Amino acid sequence: MLKKMMLAAIVCLLAGTGCAFSQKPQEASAPTAPSVPEAPRQKEPEISRPPVVDKPLAFTEKRSRLMREYSRIHYGTEMETIVPEAVVVHWTASDSQEGVYQFFYAEESPRLSHGTLNVASHYLVGKDGSIWQLTPETALNRHAIGLNWCSIGIENVGGVDGVEDLTQAQLDANIRLISYLHRKYPTITYVLGHYQQDQAMETDLWKENIKGYYHGKIDPGPKFMKGLQEALEKEGLHFL
Question: Which of 3.30.230.10, 3.40.50.1110, 3.40.50.720, 3.40.80.10 is the CATH number of 53-239?
Fold first, then answer.
């Protein structure tokens, strides 16, 4: 009997069968950590553009050439585009939005000195608050001496005879537009009225190579700028 049992044990070992005395105890596997689902990626907040009518001025190679000429005269380097650092707010001294558009439309104005690039702003806001975009936001436009190289210009219809008559609708439109521009271009840090050019001379915004090239301005008036400052200063914009 003993010989039979020993023979059976040898057979189990050689054959690798599951005999109770031939099996090694299995090691316990480490518990698997529960998988943690990835947090959903948050979308970048969309920059909401206020209602704008695209109404482009004449813009051919001629305007580009005149931009380069103007910047060479006033800044010592040829430029067609800007990196916006400021928004300059104006009034038109006219009551006609269409009339101002037609005045800005031409690429060249031979009556101007120190370059014949015509005057123009990037945006034109009517008394009803309607916003017209006239050129690309990064185009170098001629709207503010010493500041054209780094600023987006917004013209507001009104200010005839120096009367501060810009409307609440224009104020609201400017607030929405400037807020949009600030979010789109984080490089924008300043908002100023055209009449604040003297204060701008004390900042890094001012560049002008032509000695004595200066025109006194009163637009768009302190009342309008105060309204903009009260609404936009909390966004981190600086006012002069």
Answer: 3.40.80.10
